[in-house]
Amino acid sequence: MLVRFFTAQQELLWLTTLLVDLGCTVILYRLFGKAGLQVAIATAIILANLSGPKLTEIFGLQTSLGVIFYSSIFFATDVLSENYGRAEANKAVRMGFAVSVIVLLMLSISLLYQPTTDPKSAAFSLSIHDSFITIVNYTPRFVFGSLLAYYVSQSFDVWAFHRIKKVTGDRWLWLRNNLSTMSSQAIDTVIYSLVAWWGIVDLQTALALGAAKYILKMGIAAIDTAFIYWARASFRRREAALS
Fold it and tell me: InterPro entries recorded for this chain (predicted)?
């Protein structure tokens, strides 16, 4: 019954998935501290890479499923920036980039393995192999677009977050969280749409996909504001207990 409900209510499924994704990131943070945020970034990168080619429609907008899982990356980066400083946030960006390279490389290598010819399992093995090719047979432009968009946008996110914090001090966390995310994700969306999609689809469609992604990312940024306040409060309570 639950499957039928969410199949018919895609917008509620999107919101539920987003809340679960952000909630899991906060839980990882509460359980493992800074390392939990680094794990969350690596997990989100793997999920985004695997689900990136899957297109769906949310609120009438065609978008990639990877957008949802990508949301916890800039959320975790902003939490690291707020609680641990610019150096730790930049370190997490570099770690995420390394994870992305490794995932893309190893998945590409895995495609070279041929399915078994054992009569008992050959049909099943071939169907899985073909499905695997469909999901992870990344084109060079997808790899380049994904890596370039991630590294440039996340590096800019950290820079913008701390630039705004210099002006606002400890106040207005919501402002630096949203402004840094809005600007960095505009960069991410433009780079990825032009490099990865333009040529596979026409320019108009590529820009439309990018615009839809950006609108949803802005919604995600607004929703994750409550989570980042929760993460900061959790950090301060932990610090106060240790002091």
Answer: YhhQ
3-state secondary structure the chain: CHHHHHHHCHHHHHHHHHHHHHHHHHHHHHHHCHHHHHHHHHHHHHHHHHHCCCEEEECCEEEECHHHHHHHHHHHHHHHHHHHCHHHHHHHHHHHHHHHHHHHHHHHHHCCCCCCCCCCCHHHHHHHHHHHHHHHCCCHHHHHHHHHHHHHHHHHHHHHHHHHHHHHCCCCHHHHHHHHHHHHHHHHHHHHHHHHHECCECHHHHHHHHHHHHHHHHHHHHHHHHHHHHHHHHHHHHHHHHC
Q: Residue 211 above 90 pLDDT? A: no
User: What average pLDDT does the structure give for the chain?
Assistant: 86
pLDDT tens for each residue of 139-185: 667 778 888 888 999 999 999 999 999 998 888 999 999 999 889 98
- In this structure, what CATH number is given to the domain that contains residue 27? 1.10.1760
Structural domain range at position 122: 14-238
Within a domain: residue 3?
no
Q: With respect to residue 80, please indicate whether it lies within any of the assigned structural domains.
A: yes
Q: What is the number of domains present in the chain?
A: 1
